[in-house]
Design goal:
mainly alpha, MetI-like fold, transport, MetI-like, membrane, transmembrane
Amino acid sequence: MARYLIWRGLSVIPTLTGITILVFLVTYFIPGDPARMLAGTEAPPEVVAGLRHQWGLDRPIHVRYGFWMANIARGNLGESYFSHQTVLQLVRRAFPVTFELAMLSLVVALLIAVPSGILSAVRPGSWFDLGATAAGFVGLSVPGFWLGIMLIYLFGVELRWLPAGGFAPLSGGLAQNLRSMLLPAIALGTFASTQLMRYLRAGMLDVLNADYIRTARAKGLAAAMVLVRHAMRNALIPFMTVLGVQMGYLLGGTVITESVFALPGMGRLVLNAILNRDYQVATGIILLIAASFVLLNLAVDLLYPVLDPRVRLGRSTGWE
């Protein structure tokens, strides 16, 4: 098991290295000049050239990448060209909003996906199974931003039950905070639940048809015990993989949702940075989101030895 953990940990290093190169190249080739935007369209060329030299924008791409990586190694993700705040300062304010939205969305997704996936697998071909499957396909087809707009129109404009946008911090009260986050959490969580429900249903169907499940039933074990103790644990292995991916998407895929609901999170922050050609902020935040995605999936992989004894014995990787 120790070799498995070491191997999985080391495998993250080349992945993160590739992410830094990709993130830097993507932001490097974004059209626009931050020096020109800050100096203004009427500024003389020598002023713009001075700003570009000051920020190192006139250096070759490999030199800029080297300086950027050196700063990252020291824990410095850069500084905004316009506000002169560090990326970490900006993230410190925006991340709690995005994290809360992601966690609430995950709760919504699990509340929908887990009971629906289990009931669909226990009674395949039933009206509930067919309805849940159809709802899952519809959920995959509906864009999250469109669902968010419809929720705003229904509950924020027509019924006036919930605020149509904006963020209420926890310091102003838990009730107000949850009211401001409920609609965006439903919009994100509904889309995420469709994938989770499909994988849980498929995993449960495979497990419920296994020989050891029939043996457990033949021994006279209660149906609930067979379902929870024997079927659920093995069906969770592929489900946990998809859950890790969805958690990464919820952390990094909030750009449009935060913009629709006017939430001051990381998604909206990186979108504004890209629109303003604030490359330091954009690269820093995108790198943090991508690294979080990779580390979340690593954490899920490290849970496999707990869920699957074969991984604990090294049979899945051939390391022992």
